[in-house]
Design goal:
Length: 196
């Protein structure tokens, strides 16, 4: 439990966040919620700004997944990307947001599953390059307000593809057919260029 983000990044240039239980206990089943976003990316005055950010894996290893859950409060997003260098590259892939490690038990974040607003170029889910596309998806479920993915004006480009929104799995991820609805819009976008 943290009073603030589960993982908060300031003053960095290249960041890779993978293989974490955030807002869950060590077994991935019990709640250890944070008062703030599960992953919080922001800048600080006069510090370095991120040019390359990877959250999750590339679909080749389940161990690279982040499980991001139980964030509380008005800023309780699963992932919040609020500041990067202009034109930075951001990849958000293979994360499980709003579910416990069994992939079916609800572990809701209080706000949006993924909230992005920094002036970067984003890939959320599959990049469509033919390599591991079918396993690069994010699962975004059980968000308690606002919705699944929110893209705010200021984002340069965004590829959002192959994600599972508002569902859970009762068979360890073989199929995603169990309802786990987000409160609000599944995908809300306002940016310069979108592929979805």
């Amino acid at each position: 439990n943290n009073s603030g983000g589960g993982i908060s990044i300031f003053n960095a240039t290249t960041v890779n966040i993978a293989g974490n239980y955030i807002g869950l206990n060590a077994s991935g089943t019990g709640s250890h919620g944070n008062t703030g976003a599960g992953i919080f990316i922001a800048g600080a005055g006069g510090g370095s700004q991120i040019t390359s950010l990877t959250i999750g894996g590339d679909g080749t290893a389940a161990a690279a997944r982040n499980f991001i859950a139980n964030s509380i409060g008005a800023g309780g997003h699963g992932i919040y990307v609020g500041a990067t260098a202009s034109g930075a590259t951001v990849a958000i892939k293979s994360n499980i947001i709003g579910l416990a490690s069994d992939l079916v038990t609800a572990a809701a974040n209080a706000a949006t599953g993924i909230y992005i607003m920094a002036p970067a170029n984003y890939t959320i889910g599959s990049n469509g390059d033919g390599s591991n596309d079918s396993t690069e998806y994010n699962v975004i479920s059980n968000s308690a307000s606002v919705g699944g993915i929110q893209v705010i004006n200021g984002v340069l480009t965004a590829i959002i593809a192959g994600n599972i929104i508002g569902l859970a799995s009762s068979d360890s991820g073989s199929t995603w057919t169990t309802a786990a609805a987000n409160v609000g819009i599944g995908l809300s976008v306002a940016c310069n260029s979108l592929t979805a």
